[in-house]
Every structure is written in structure tokens, then in C-alpha cells.
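pls design
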């Protein structure tokens, strides 16, 4: 199956847009999806990123594998995480990834079978006692990537949330400088930033908070129109190797 990538013109906020189309023979096999599936995501290595003129990553590669097995043409748009979700909520895109399940997202979209598993960990700044209790929640400075489910979870659960870090690189810098006392971040994402900063993986004390599955959220309006799509996508995911 031939795969052609074409760089598209950018729009406000959007970092890049790539499309993929298949041959006419492959398109003829498609019966349960649109002529082109519109998916949006964020630059969030190692799950999905744009490097060396290619979009790649743990989750992205699995999405491409599943859609390839389905013979489903698609277009990927990389933008901010909040914009990615808004685009699906408004109906301009069919789905976003890679995401954990939340009640807010369930109101307008449905999560696929898992593409990857996320381990959420606390990272403690130099000199900070590695424990979380009611006293530390109020007296220490916590943060996570701004706009992420983690950031809002901290706010909802009474943590003293400070700063609005745009990514894990900024979180690492603030934590190292003790402008933040404790960070909540994805283990693989933070480990990558530690490696890029030439710091050992155990530079900060850490403890695991939770492990969650992550998948693709497809718009409920889209799934109502293409009722067999999600089952087919989930089936294709199971056929893609890790």
C-alpha cells in the first residue's frame, strides 16, 4: 500500500498539518469511514512528535498502523492540546489523541481501546520531602502542564497550583530551580526531558500516583454517522504490535 505525505498550509496556532492518502484500490475497500478521517493531536514526545520532517511516536505509530489496516485515508493536524480538543468538540475534526478518559470528554466523544499506558508520577524538587499529605497540598507549590488534565486535576483536588508551564521542559527547569516544589507529569515524558538535560533519571525523588490507559477520542457526532467505525478501529489496534 502506497502512502503519500503532503505538507499542507498552516492555520493559526497549528504547528503543522500532514495528510495521507491511499491508492484507489485501497480506497475501494473502505466502507465504514469518511473519505478522509480528520485527526488532531499535540506535540508530546515520546507519544507523538514532529522530528526530522516526520510525525512519529509511540501512540502516533499505532494510530497509523490501525488506520493502515483499515485502509482509512486520514489527515493529521498538530496543534495545542486545548485547541485539539476544542476542534473535536466543535465538530471541525473527527478525533484527538492521545488522551486519558475524563467525564468532560465523555460528554462529546468516545474513547477507543488503549494505544498506550500512561504512568503519572510526582517529582519532588531538591530538598523537598517526598510525600504528599494535606499539609503539603496547601503549603507547597505544585504544578503540571498548563491546560492538561493533570493541571486541572490538581486544581480540583485542592492542591496549591502555581505557574502555567507550557511543557515538560519548562516544568523541569522550574522544579530544578525550586520555583515549583512538586510536579505531576507523565513518566516517559519527564524521563525524556531529563535525558535531554543530561540529568540522571533519579535526579529528582519521585513516586507513582496512578497508571491510566490512553487512546483516541472520536466525536460522538462522527460515530453516530459512521456507526461501525469504532469497532473496526479497536479491532485494528489489537492487530498492531507494540
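designed seq:
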Amino acid at each position: 500500500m502506497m502512502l503519500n505525505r503532503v505538507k499542507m498550509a498552516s492555520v493559526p496556532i497549528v504547528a503543522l498539518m500532514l495528510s495521507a492518502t491511499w491508492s484507489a484500490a485501497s480506497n475501494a475497500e473502505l466502507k465504514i469511514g469518511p473519505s478522509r478521517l480528520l485527526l488532531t493531536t499535540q506535540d508530546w514526545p515520546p507519544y507523538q512528535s514532529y522530528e526530522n520532517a516526520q510525525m512519529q511516536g509511540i501512540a502516533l505509530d499505532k494510530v497509523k498502523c490501525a488506520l493502515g489496516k483499515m485502509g482509512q485515508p486520514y489527515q493529521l493536524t498538530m496543534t495545542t492540546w486545548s485547541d485539539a480538543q476544542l476542534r473535536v468538540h466543535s465538530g471541525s475534526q473527527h478525533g484527538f489523541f492521545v488522551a486519558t478518559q475524563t467525564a468532560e470528554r465523555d460528554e462529546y466523544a468516545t474513547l477507543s481501546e488503549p494505544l498506550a499506558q500512561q504512568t503519572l508520577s510526582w517529582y519532588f524538587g531538591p530538598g523537598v520531602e517526598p510525600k504528599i499529605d494535606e499539609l503539603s497540598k496547601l503549603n507547597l507549590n505544585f504544578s503540571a502542564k498548563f491546560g492538561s488534565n493533570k493541571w486541572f486535576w490538581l486544581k480540583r483536588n485542592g492542591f496549591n497550583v502555581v505557574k502555567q508551564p507550557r511543557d515538560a521542559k519548562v516544568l523541569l527547569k522550574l522544579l530544578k530551580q525550586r520555583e515549583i516544589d512538586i510536579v505531576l507529569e507523565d513518566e516517559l515524558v519527564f524521563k525524556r526531558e531529563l535525558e535531554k538535560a543530561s540529568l540522571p533519571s533519579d535526579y529528582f525523588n519521585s513516586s507513582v500516583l496512578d497508571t491510566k490507559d490512553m487512546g483516541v477520542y472520536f466525536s460522538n457526532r462522527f460515530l453516530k454517522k459512521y456507526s461501525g467505525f469504532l469497532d473496526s478501529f479497536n479491532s485494528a489496534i489489537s492487530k498492531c504490535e507494540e
